[in-house]
């Protein structure tokens, strides 16, 4: 399968590198020229557990000369989604499947607006990664599940073929008939800790030792659960504590999500779908104020 990854940061490099190591024809597309040059000159170095592998991938800063892909995986920041898809025209063919593995909500709708919703499938991953240097990445994928599925819940041949490609790469993959619910479950995990780490600057070790921050996180996740229920989304997350504990599962005490780094660098956080400014926007996208009414009612004690 010919796979193009839009956004070759830690996660894009990890997923793309492992797919290439499993036999896929992989192209990593990113604007970080130093990273692209390092990959093309020495291969993509991946640290997976205690092992080091060098994945044979091709990297580029644009998609000229690549030709249509079978699968495009989108892992750019959400505020760059529309621009990335609009610039990806040369690699989008009649049967190209486009899957977002981004956090947050709304990316699938943006992709569908640009290329047509028939090209779009949903996906979420609980894998992680970090960049050590240009061309060198830690892939935290062992035992971390990735879920893919059609947005309407159908189990189709194209999704099954994608799953086989991921399995060959050694990735833990599940085809889901409720991918929208899983997208919300992953959002709740992000909500539990991302903003609080960003505001306080604390790593997980400090965050999880403060009861006041835990209470704040649980309230935020509770709000998210209420929004999802109002939208008719079926969640596997039943209690806020599930998202709170899942956020730190298998991670060291010095771990920090990406949001604190953005604050330190004073990068504008334009990702309006990632945290809870997103509930109002999501309601507007759905043409309904049900989610806001449900949350307002909950805070009023109804």
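^ structure tokens above, recovered residues below v
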């Amino acid at each position: 399968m010919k796979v193009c990854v839009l956004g070759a940061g830690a996660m894009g490099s990890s997923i793309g590198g492992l797919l290439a190591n499993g036999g896929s024809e992989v192209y990593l597309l990113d604007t970080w020229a130093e990273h692209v040059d390092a990959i093309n000159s020495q291969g993509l170095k991946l640290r997976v557990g205690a092992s080091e592998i060098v994945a044979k991938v091709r990297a580029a800063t644009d998609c000229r000369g690549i030709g249509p892909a079978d699968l495009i995986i989108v892992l750019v920041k959400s505020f760059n989604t529309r621009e990335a898809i609009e610039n990806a025209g040369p690699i989008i063919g009649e049967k190209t499947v486009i899957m977002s593995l981004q956090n947050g909500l709304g990316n699938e709708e943006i992709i569908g607006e640009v290329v047509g919703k028939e090209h779009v499938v949903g996906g979420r991953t609980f894998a992680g990664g970090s960049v050590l240097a240009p061309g060198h990445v830690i892939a935290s994928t062992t035992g971390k599940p990735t879920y893919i599925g059609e947005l309407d819940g159908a189990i189709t041949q194209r999704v099954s073929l994608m799953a086989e490609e991921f399995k060959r790469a050694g990735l833990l993959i599940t085809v889901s008939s409720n991918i929208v619910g899983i997208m919300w479950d992953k959002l709740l995990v992000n909500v539990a800790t991302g903003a609080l780490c960003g505001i306080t600057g604390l790593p997980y070790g400090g965050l999880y030792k403060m009861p006041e921050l835990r209470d704040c996180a649980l309230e935020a996740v509770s709000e998210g659960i209420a929004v999802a229920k109002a939208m008719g989304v079926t969640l596997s997350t039943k209690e806020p504590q599930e998202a709170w504990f899942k956020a730190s599962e298998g991670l060291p005490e010095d771990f920090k999500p990406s949001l604190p780094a953005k604050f330190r660098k004073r990068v504008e956080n334009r990702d309006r779908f990632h945290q809870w400014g997103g509930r109002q926007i999501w309601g507007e996208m759905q043409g309904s104020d049900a989610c806001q009414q449900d949350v307002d009612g909950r805070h009023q004690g109804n």
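The chain has two domains: 2-177, 180-299.
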